[in-house]
Amino acid sequence: MNDSPDCPLVGVVATYMPRLSEFSFEPGLVAAVDQHAAAVCDALVPAQRGPGDHDRVPGPPAGRTVQREELSDYVLGFTDYLSEVDWVEPVGHDFATLRLTAVCWLIREHDLLV
Questions:
Q1: Gyration radius of the chain's alpha carbons
Q2: How does pLDDT run across 52-73, given as a tens digit for each residue?
Q3: Per-residue pLDDT tens over the stretch 14-24
Q4: Long-range contacts of 70-73 (CB under 8 A, 24+ apart)
Q5: Domain ranges in the chain?
Q6: Cα 38 from Cα 35, distance rounded (Å)
């Protein structure tokens, strides 16, 4: 996959990456984005099973990270849903802006647009 304008990650980065600069001004934003990033990772990379069926080890399986194609598919589905419900980006932060900001954080942390 290239970084063409058709890649959904490019549009999300252009719109929401600047929100990462708000981290230094809003400490609670860091925690909220971290929680959303963890939820996205859980959706894309299932948690490992521990010794018992009920034991879950957080995070991706050893050696597994968020993949660009998987995150692109996730973003397409999420933004399609937002379009269906006529979502409008608010001033401030709602669930959707936090989720899309978290996607940007994952893109940056995993170098998904290089």
A1: 15
A2: 444 444 444 455 578 899 999 9
A3: 999 999 998 88
A4: 70/44, 70/45, 71/9, 71/40, 71/44, 71/103, 71/106, 71/107, 71/112, 72/1, 72/7, 72/8, 72/9
A5: 8-109
A6: 5
